[in-house]
Structures are given as structure tokens and as C-alpha cells.
Design goal:
- It is a single chain.
- The protein contains ten helices and seven strands.
- The chain is of the alpha/beta class.
- It has a seven-stranded mixed sheet, with helices on both faces.
- α5 runs parallel beside α8 and α9 (about 230-255) packs antiparallel against α10.
- The two termini are about 30 Å apart.
């Protein structure tokens, strides 16, 4: 087993490959490592530049098309074989020289994850820094994950921790929350170097804001109701159904006493609440069955054991 697997997702980064590979060689010269470049469907010479490195420490993993950062990261993680797995951007903004320090921290502190914090971030304020601060604040408050910089790709994990999760959609921003769901709660953070982009164009823009909010709702649901979806859908459904029954009972009394109830907006509201309540309870039951299939069909456990230690003195 390698000491370290370094996963680098790249998309149209041809000018960054050579300098990044040289920096990786210098930073990790004392490690038995593999550096996995995951090409996410580049349309420039990125793949040719990776092949030109001509070093058996470096691997090229080519995806058939552009799947996005989350899927590319997952492909690299699946291919990683190292005792520790590090993630780093391919745009030269993260510094590979920080990785040995982070691995040392992970070993000495027995951390599941050591996350980088871009202490002196070299990005534009309006398009990058301010939206990032807002997103970090919302994610911290919603998930309870007290990380300063959830958007920093530079992270080091134990193999066990990172292999326990699956990253899809746009969930790469929520890796700490995904780890917490799997029981990997030993996480820390450290200031790392951050550099201005020299070559190529950033793939980030404000259009991703709505995706962050959508994924945040999903993560809050996962955190609170992953193993008990009926408590969420059933609770709302029972309240909704109850309100609908009360409204319809009130209208029934009016009808008994000779009042005309046809066409009243409250009648429509009562019917909608009853039907909506029944549907929500039904969704809760179906979601509960899916969760049972998820755990029992794959022989998964709703818990993870860190270690079992004998108390007998040697």
C-alpha cells in the first residue's frame, strides 16, 4: 500500500500540469505516493501534458465526458490505494508543499480529516470571497459542521474515512458533513497557502449559488432524517391531515345546520390539506422502506466502529 494517494481533478488546465507536477515531486519526494490526475473531459491538451510527465508516480484517469467536480473526485478516490488520500485543485492555487504538514497532523492527532483553510485567499472579493463566506456561514449553521473554509479543496483523509462516503451531484462542498453522517467526527483544520491563478480560467461563478442552497437542503435532511424519514414526512403529513380534517368537520357542521358551503375557499383548502397529508404520510412510508432496503439490502450498518481495544494488561 502506498503512503499517500493524491487526487487532482483537472478540466482544461493544460498550462498548469507541468508546474504542478514539479511542485508535487518536490513536496512529496520523501513519500511513497501516487498522484492521480482525473481528466474530467478536457477539450484542450490537458491529457497530453499529463502523459508528458513520464513518471511512474503519476497516473492519468480519463473520464469519457465532463461529469463535474464531484463525480471526478469520486472517480479519483475510487482509484486511490494509499493509506492517506489527499485532494488538491489542479489550478495551482493550492500549494502541494502543505501536504506533508497535513499528513503529519493527521497521523499524530489520529484525525479522520485535516482540512485546509485559505488564510490569505487570492480571489476576487465580489465573485468569490463574499459568496463563499455567506455559503460557509449557512452550511455551518445548518449542518453544525464548524469548518471555516468548506470550499477549500485541499484536504487530507484516512483511507477508511474517505472510502466510507460517496460524492455525487455537487456534494463535494459537503464532504465534512458526509463524513460526519458516516461517523467520522475526528476532523480538524489548518491554515494553508493560497495562490492567485496564473493560467486558465476559473470554472466557478455566481450561477452555482442556487446549487449550493439546493444541496444544503439535502444535507440538512440527511443529517436529521437519513435513518428516520418517516419522522419528517409523517410529522408534517399528520399535522396537514389533522388541519384538513378539522376544516372539513367544521364545514360538515355548517352543512348540517343548513348553510351553503359549496364554492367556499375554505372547502378547497380543507380538501387540499387532507389529500396533501395522506400523500406526505405515504411518501414517508415509501422513504422508510427505501432506507431499510439501503441498509439491509447492502448489509450496511447504521453505525461505524472506530476500534475495539482489549482492557487486559499485557
Amino acid at each position: 500500500m502506498k503512503q499517500l494517494s493524491l487526487v487532482i481533478c483537472v478540466y482544461n488546465e493544460e498550462l498548469n500540469i507541468k508546474p504542478l507536477s514539479e511542485q508535487i515531486k518536490n513536496a512529496l519526494k520523501d513519500f511513497d505516493y501516487e498522484a492521480i490526475f482525473v481528466d474530467d473531459g478536457s477539450i484542450d491538451r490537458t491529457r497530453e501534458e499529463v502523459r508528458a510527465i513520464n513518471d511512474d508516480h503519476f497516473l492519468l484517469l480519463e473520464l469519457k465526458k465532463n461529469y463535474g467536480q464531484s463525480s471526478a473526485l469520486q472517480a479519483g478516490i475510487d482509484a486511490a490505494s494509499g493509506e492517506y488520500v489527499a485532494l488538491i485543485d489542479g489550478d495551482l492555487q493550492n500549494d502541494p508543499a502543505d501536504i506533508p504538514m497535513m499528513i503529519k497532523m493527521a497521523k499524530e492527532g489520529e484525525w479522520d480529516m485535516v482540512a485546509g483553510v485559505r488564510a490569505n485567499r487570492q480571489d476576487g472579493a465580489f465573485l468569490r470571497k463574499i459568496p463563499s463566506k455567506i455559503a460557509n456561514y449557512l452550511i455551518r449553521e445548518a449542518t453544525g459542521i464548524r469548518m471555516k473554509d468548506l470550499g477549500c479543496t485541499l484536504k487530507v483523509f484516512t483511507k477508511e474515512a474517505i472510502k466510507s462516503i460517496h460524492i455525487y451531484g455537487e456534494l463535494h462542498r459537503f464532504i465534512p458533513a458526509l463524513l460526519a453522517l458516516e461517523g467520522s467526527t475526528r476532523m480538524t483544520q489548518v491554515d494553508v497557502n493560497h495562490r492567485a491563478r496564473e493560467f486558465g480560467k476559473s470554472k466557478y461563478n455566481l450561477s452555482r449559488t442556487t446549487r449550493v442552497f439546493s444541496d444544503l437542503i439535502l444535507m440538512v435532511f440527511f443529517k436529521k432524517y437519513m435513518q428516520r424519514p418517516m419522522h419528517f414526512f409523517g410529522g408534517i403529513g399528520i399535522v396537514t391531515l389533522g388541519l384538513g380534517v378539522l376544516i372539513n368537520f367544521y364545514l360538515l357542521i355548517l352543512k348540517v345546520f343548513g348553510h351553503d358551503i359549496w364554492g367556499k375557499p375554505i372547502l378547497i383548502l380543507g380538501m387540499i390539506l387532507v389529500m396533501g397529508g395522506i400523500q406526505l404520510i405515504t411518501i414517508g412510508i415509501v422513504a422508510e422502506m427505501l432506507m431499510r432496503t439501503y441498509y439491509e439490502g447492502q448489509n450496511k450498518k447504521p453505525y461505524r466502529v472506530r476500534r475495539i481495544t482489549s482492557t487486559k494488561e499485557v
